[in-house]
């Protein structure tokens, strides 16, 4: 049985030949709220999987089915809390916004995500990693991601006209949350971009993809990152987003204000940016312990000593 919410390719979010009234309404509701295209696609896919699991329309299902589905995702499929959260957000939108069900918030509980600090590359590791990227285009993309702290979707959607060499800025159009912002254009990055442009001669998209008129895909960048990671032999995990983490951490460690980093990263909340305070080792771990500020304490009577273990 084909689900009433069969997955739609992102290219066809606005035009589907098999559009059901419920799917159409949900799509319109997401459009009214200006949700990102990737979010719209993800929500439709998640509701499709939910309806397919029960082989029934979501309109016929209720809180008990939602709970059973969350148990299925957690126990049977063993999905991470972050993955369950995506499905939960989609179902919350469907039932609260599109179907306007008067349910209590706990009827669709949101799983609590464990707080994990990202593993951050050192400046030397970033330099070594970039040197192992064997494609001019991909090296320029990943260098740009690190130099400006960009998300992979932001760097892939840069246009030639977004480079402002007069003001030494990069314009990020409609980043996460559909917000524009400016970030710094480093002199070294500008030099790298000019060298890349002389070879590739991009027209509209700064980093064009294989499909005419389309930017390079996120998957292509991720694959290039994986190849360079293997070639670099770095034990730490490395993804395109790792370069964004490194950008923020390295700025913080060199004394840049957290509020300024928040603006550069495009974070809506300062609390999101403040997590980098926990991993900026040169500022956190280099802090003087209050023990070192105490007056010396008289030593205890001598006892037989053993060699220290550290």
Automatic annotation (TrEMBL):
**UniProt domain Core-binding (CB): residue ranges:** 17-99
What InterPro entries has UniProt attached to this entry?
A: CB (IPR044068), DNA_brk_join_enz (IPR011010), Integrase-like_cat_sf (IPR013762), Integrase_catalytic (IPR002104), Integrase_recombinase_N (IPR010998), Integrase_SAM-like_N (IPR004107), Tyrosine_recombinase_XerCD (IPR050090)
Domain (Tyr recombinase): give its ranges: 116-289
Q: Which CDD domains match?
A: INT_IntI_C (cd01193)
Which top-rank group of organisms is this from? Bacteria
Q: Which UniProt keywords apply?
A: DNA integration, DNA recombination, DNA-binding
Read off the PROSITE patterns from this record.
CB, TYR_RECOMBINASE
A Pfam family that this protein carries is Phage_integrase
Leader sequence range is none
The record's family statement is: Belongs to the 'phage' integrase family.
Instruction: State the protein's name.
Output: Tyrosine-type recombinase/integrase
State the organism's lineage. Answer: Bacteria, Pseudomonadati, Pseudomonadota, Betaproteobacteria, Burkholderiales
């Amino acid at each position: 049985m084909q689900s009433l919410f069969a997955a739609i390719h992102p290219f066809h979010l606005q035009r589907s030949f098999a559009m059901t009234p419920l799917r159409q309404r949900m799509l319109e509701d997401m459009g009214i709220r200006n949700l990102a295209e990737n979010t719209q696609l993800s929500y439709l896919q998640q509701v499709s999987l939910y309806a397919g699991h029960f082989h029934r329309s979501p309109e016929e299902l209720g809180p008990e089915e939602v709970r059973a589905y969350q148990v299925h995702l957690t126990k049977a499929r063993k999905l991470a809390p972050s993955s369950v959260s995506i499905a939960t957000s989609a179902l919350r939108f469907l039932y609260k916004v599109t179907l306007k069900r008067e349910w209590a918030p706990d009827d669709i509980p949101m799983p609590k995500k464990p707080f994990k600090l990202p593993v951050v590359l050192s400046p030397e590791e970033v330099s070594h990693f970039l040197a192992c990227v064997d494609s001019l285009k991909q090296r320029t993309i990943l260098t740009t991601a690190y130099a400006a702290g960009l998300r992979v979707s932001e760097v892939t959607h840069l246009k030639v006209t977004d480079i402002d060499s007069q003001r030494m800025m990069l314009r990020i159009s409609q980043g996460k949350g559909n917000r524009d912002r400016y970030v710094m254009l480093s002199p070294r990055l500008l030099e790298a971009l000019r060298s890349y442009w002389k070879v590739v001669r991009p027209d509209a998209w700064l980093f064009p993809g294989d499909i005419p008129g389309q930017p390079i895909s996120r998957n292509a960048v991720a694959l290039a990152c994986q190849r360079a990671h293997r070639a670099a032999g770095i034990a730490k995990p490395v993804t395109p987003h790792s370069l964004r983490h490194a950008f923020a951490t390295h700025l913080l460690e060199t004394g840049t204000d957290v509020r300024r980093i928040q603006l550069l990263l495009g974070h809506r909340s300062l609390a999101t940016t403040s997590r980098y305070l926990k991993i900026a080792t040169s500022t956190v771990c280099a802090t003087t312990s209050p023990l070192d500020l105490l007056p010396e304490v008289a030593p205890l009577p001598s006892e037989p000593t053993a060699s220290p273990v550290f």
